[in-house]
Design brief:
Rossmann fold; six-stranded parallel β-sheet; 10 helices; 12 strands; binds NADP nicotinamide-adenine-dinucleotide phosphate
Length: 289
């Protein structure tokens, strides 16, 4: 299949491109050096040779959650207007669009897992801008798949695992937030699933996608401390004790029942985190040789 990937050098985009290529797909990759999704003309020009594509996958986004609180206009432009421009272009060329969103569209006040039809009430500019992007795609082009994902990590980005590994090495004690729940999700797992899915897509619409099982940042950190075999003492902390520019939902648990019913699910988070760390270690060893 001929597939367009936006945000192809980002954390998720990189893994999606390599998974698609491994499966023999013809990938047409774009990042900020080749397209500006905020600009309609740039979208039309850059994608002009791809009007016969079978799918467009949008991994492009402005993902600096705290910076979004300062950079409102950039956040809404990349996360709101960008997806709208892409959806319009896709509709004009009858190409289905696959897009990623976030659990930050919710306020985290719900007691149980969030389902796709739950009311959105974002606490941050990032969450609001991503919600705007979802709505733009939904109103512009019916042939869409939107996947809300969360707590991503992967070898081509900066994320909690990397940060924690450095902190564990350099500190004797650490305080980690223990009242925010979610599910760490490996970008390589999403990439494998997307590669299978595009061959036979589910019904168009919105889906929640995350690893199986849930945790808090604190329990996640303790799990990583054991894997890294570090001795640092980790203590639980309340969100209020670690103020950040952007508010995060306390309960970010996404119900994956709809995706599971459609035949799609990801591995357990602990299995994937262990596999990821093992992979990183073996690559580091190979480099050191
Ligand atoms: N990271 C997470 O924990 C997380 C959680 C929930 C949802 N998500 C969603 O998952 C998706 C992928 O996230 P990620 O972490 O992989 O993102 P990322 O690593 O920050 O990558 C973002 C990509 O977007 C491209 N980009 C930014 N502005 C652009 C513009 N104006 N025009 C064209 N391309 C542009 C960047 O290009 P350059 O490479 O050239 O800079 C980069 O390749 C996003 O939709 C994000 O909102 C992420």
């Amino acid at each position: 299949m001929k597939i367009i990937i936006l945000g192809a050098t980002g954390m998720l985009g990189s893994d999606i491109v390599s998974s698609l290529k491994k499966s023999g797909h013809d990938c047409h990759s774009f990042n900020t050096s080749t397209i500006n999704i905020c600009d309609k003309i740039s979208v039309h020009t850059a994608l002009s040779t791809c009007t016969d594509a079978d799918f467009l996958i949008n991994c492009a986004a402005y993902t600096q959650v705290d910076l979004c609180e300062k950079e409102h206009s950039l956040a809404f432009s990349v996360n709101g207007t960008g997806p709208k421009n892409l959806a319009i272009w896709c509709r004009e060329h009858m190409i289905p669009i696959l897009h990623f969103s976030t659990d930050y569209v919710f306020d985290g006040e719900k007691k149980g897992p969030y389902v796709e039809t739950d009311l959105c009430s974002p606490l941050s500019i990032y969450g609001t801008s991503k919600w705007q992007g979802e709505q733009a795609i939904q109103s512009e082009w019916s042939q869409h798949l939107i996947f809300r994902v969360q707590w991503l990590y992967g070898q081509h980005g900066t994320h909690f695992i990397q940060t924690l590994q450095t902190l564990l090495k350099n500190r004797d004690t650490l305080c980690i937030v223990a009242d925010q729940k979610g599910s760490p999700t490996w970008t390589a797992d999403i990439a494998t699933l997307i590669t299978t899915l595009i061959a036979s897509p589910p019904s168009w619409g919105l889906y929640h996608l995350r690893s199986q099982g849930e945790t808090t940042w604190y329990d996640y950190a303790c799990f990583l401390k054991d894997i890294f075999d570090e001795t640092c003492t980790i203590s639980p902390q309340k969100t209020e004790e670690y103020p950040r520019p952007a508010k995060r939902p306390k309960n970010g648990i996404l119900s994956t029942d709809k995706a599971t019913r459609a035949g799609y699910s990801l591995p357990k988070w602990k299995d994937s985190v262990s596999a990821y760390v093992k992979m990183i270690y073996s690559r580091q060893k190979q480099k050191d040789r």
